[in-house]
Every structure is written in C-alpha cells, then in structure tokens.
Amino acid sequence: MIWSETGPTRSKARFFENRRLLSLVLAGALVWSVASIDWGGGVVHTGGAGALKDFVLALFPPELSLSFLRIALIASWQTVAYAVASITLAVLIGLPLGVIASGTLAQSSRSRIAIVAGVRFLLAAMRSIHELVWAVLFVTAFGLSSLTVILAIVIPYAGILGRIYSDLFNDVPEEPLRALRSAGASPMRVFLYGRLPIMLGDLLSYSFYRFECAIRAAAIMSFVGIRGLGYEIRLSLNDLLFSEVWTLLLFLVALVLLVDYWSTRVRRSLAT
C-alpha cells in the first residue's frame, strides 16, 4: 500500500524535475543566443524612421486606381496558380511518403524499421533546405520559369507534409483499429477504413494551412523575377510607391483570409 502511494508521487516528482531541467536548458539557450548576437554591428540607417513613417502613411489611402487594381488582380491570380500547382504536387508526393514513413503498412518489424528510417531520412533532407535555396538552384538549372517556382515549393513542402502526415497516422488511437484487425482486415484495409477516416479532418486542416504558406511562398518567389505579387511589390518598392505596395499586401492578406474561410467551411462540412 505504501509503495502504491509513493510510486505516483515519485513519478510526479521526476516529471517536475524533468520539466525544471527542460526550462533551465531553454533559458540557458535563450541567454546564450542573446549574448551571441552582435547588437552593435552593422550599419545604422539614420533615415529609417522617416522612411517607415512614409510607408505607414501611404496606407491612407492605398492605390485604388482601376488600372493598378487590374495589375494587382492579375498578379494575385498568378500567385494563386503557382500555389495551387505547388500544394497539389506536394500533397500527392507527401501523402504516400507519409503513409510509408508512418510504418502502418509494413508487414514485419524488421522491414518496418528499415523502410521508416529511409523514408524519414528522405523527408528530412527534402524539408531541410528552404524554398529560396531550391529556387536559386533551379534558376541555375532551368532559368526563370514557372517550373522553377513550383519545384522550389514542392520539394520542401512535400517533406513537411510527409512528416506531419506520418505523425498524424501514428497518433490514431488503437481502440477503433482493433475491431478491424480482429475481423481479419489487412494493414491496407485498416489504414483505409480506420486511420484515414479518423485523421481526415486533421489532414485537411494542415493541408489548407500549408496552402496558405504556399501562397506566401509563391509571392516571395516572385522576387526572383517570376511575375506575381512579389514581382509587383518589388517594382513598387524600387520606385518608392508605398501606396501601391500596401494595395498588393492587402491583396495578399485577402488571399490568405479566403483560404482560411474555405478551410473552415470544409472542416465544418466534414463535422456535420
């Protein structure tokens, strides 16, 4: 009786000790990172405050002429086109890799360890390089083209999606799956009729979030010379036309809000 009472107490004590240790490690890492920054280095822009003031005041009002709104609308459409193509390919690549990385379809434990380790290494390699670095590499290989933007987004996003998908499939509770296994269902049927339906809402939610990220990434990719919102923002910034920059930024915000609204509607339709 004494052991049963002190056991949970000791476990709880170990938990709080580990949490304190983790907090100390994080605090130490924060202090080290702050101390390592060269706060006094660099060149100070003495006119930055005035430029920032001009930029903020340019919001009232932004550029709303019909000719520029047409330019912003076309640039938004191009950005969305890049994002849709990129996230579609990323999901088509990341989903099967995520299923394999989860190990839910492996027949034996030995093959499961080898396959999971290999695919997880591939996913880590894909997502470890930022899309801007991929863009520079693909510009060298293919030049300034739509393929450059799409591939630069697809590779890291497929790696990210594959990792998240695999974790979601592994987080499915075992209770609903035991009935399928007891009925003689194969691992593939357990996945199709058990894991996938349970996690479908979470899969869609995160996929829509990555779609929002793909829109922003496509806009940033436009800075390398591909037409889109980023390209138009760069042109306006070069001419110090801050009111046009605000209009383009508002279009970008509107795109993200539309995707968020669409995601919410889809999740609610699945819940009903």
Task: Note the topology.
Blueprint: H1 2-36, H2 48-57, H3 66-102, H4 109-128, H5 131-142, H6 146-170, H7 175-182, H8 187-221, H9 229-238, H10 242-271
Helix pairs in contact: 3-4, 3-6, 3-8, 3-9, 3-10, 4-6, 5-6, 6-8, 7-8, 8-10, 9-10
Explain what the structure shows.
The chain has one domain (75-271): MetI-like (MetI-like fold, Orthogonal Bundle), CATH 1.10.3720. Helices cover 82% and strands 0% of the residues. The chain is mostly helical. The longest helix is centred in the first third of the chain and has 37 residues, at 66-102. The model is unreliable at 1-9 (pLDDT under 50). The radius of gyration is 25 Å and the shape is globular.
Q: How many structurally independent domains?
A: 1
CATH topology call:
MetI-like fold
Outline the biggest β-sheet: none
* CATH superfamily placement: MetI-like
Percent of residues in beta strands? under 5%
Fraction of residues in helices? Answer: over 70%
Q: What's the CATH architecture name?
A: Orthogonal Bundle
